Amino acid sequence: MSEPQGLCPTNWHVPSDTEWDTLVNYLGGETIAGGAMKEIGLTHWATPNAGATNSSGFAGLPGGNRYYNGTCSLIGNHGYWWSATQFSTASAYYRPLSYANSDVLSLTNVKTFGFSVRCVRD
After folding, report:
1. pTM to 2 decimals?
2. What is the pLDDT of residues 30-83, one digit of tens each?
3. Coil, helix or strand at residue 83
4. For residue 44, what pLDDT is reported?
5. Rounded Cα gap, residues 39 and 49, in angstroms
6. In DSSP terms, which residues pair with 94 in a beta bridge?
7. Longest CA pairwise span in the chain (Å)
8. Strand partners, 13
9. 34 alpha carbon, distance to own chain's centre
């Protein structure tokens, strides 16, 4: 798999949707893994930051998103991370975390949205 636009340093890569699945399954499945991936507390997350334990050490933060027109939203409520896996030429898979639950699902969105990226060591 080629690195999307060279986002990560040498010997690191943006994880594929399959790699995200591996992490989510290791953390107990899509209905609880989000809690294991979120920073504990309300310093950055909106209340109630449901299920947050950060037991994975991921310490996911609610960076929100950037729309195609440059405006940003949902900072403090949601975090979104791209995968390196395309759904179509215009869209790709991503993983959201929410203040309201412990879910972490595999969804798709258009690539013109600005989401966070995670780099993992090769």
Report:
1. 0.92
2. 999 999 999 999 999 999 999 999 999 999 999 999 998 999 999 999 999 999
3. strand
4. 98
5. 9
6. 82, 107
7. 38
8. 120
9. 9
